[in-house]
């Protein structure tokens, strides 16, 4: 469900009410990307086998790339390599933050 929320948020028009609301936080778009993907990577590390969590992390990086390509097909969003870097950094951070907390 969280993955779906991130994908939808990334593909919504820039002037949509949810993105306008996010804009009131006055956070960089890159910080939002980093945070979203960190959360997506953190949760599986806690509860899945390590091998599964790493596979999910790889899929999340791929998802970040695909979402950016998807944005290039929208009227109000743009493909940005810096967003992909922020997504990947978030995935790495989520993995590293979750490893010491594994159950």
| Quaternary organisation of the protein chains | single chain
Radius of gyration based on Cα positions: 14 Å
Total E-strand runs: 0
Report the biggest beta sheet as strand number plus sense, adding barrel if it closes.
none
Helix content: over 70%
Instruction: Compute the number of helices.
Output: 5
Strand content: under 5%
Distance between the termini: 22 Å
Mean residue pLDDT: 91
- Contiguous low-pLDDT stretches (5 residues minimum) are none
Which secondary-structure class do the elements indicate? mainly alpha
Shape designation: elongated
Q: Summarize the helix and strand pattern as letters.
A: HHHHH
Folded structure, characterized:
This protein has helices at residues 2-11, 17-23, 29-47, 50-71, 81-98. The protein has 103 residues and is mostly helical. It is built from 5 helices and no strands.
Keyphrases for this structure?
5 helices; elongated; 103 residues; mainly alpha
Task: Kindly summarize this structure in a few lines.
The chain is built from five helices and no strands. The chain is mainly alpha-helical and 103 residues long.
């Amino acid at each position: 469900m969280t993955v779906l929320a991130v994908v939808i948020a990334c593909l919504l028009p820039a002037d949509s009410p949810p993105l306008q609301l996010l804009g009131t936080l006055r956070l960089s778009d890159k910080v939002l990307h980093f945070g979203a993907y960190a959360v997506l990577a953190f949760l599986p590390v806690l509860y899945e086998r390590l091998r599964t969590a790493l596979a999910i992390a790889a899929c999340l990086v791929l998802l970040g790339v695909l979402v950016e390509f998807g944005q290039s097909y929208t009227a109000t969003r743009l493909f940005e390599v810096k967003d992909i870097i922020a997504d990947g950094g978030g995935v790495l951070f989520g993995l590293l933050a979750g490893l010491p907390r594994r159950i």
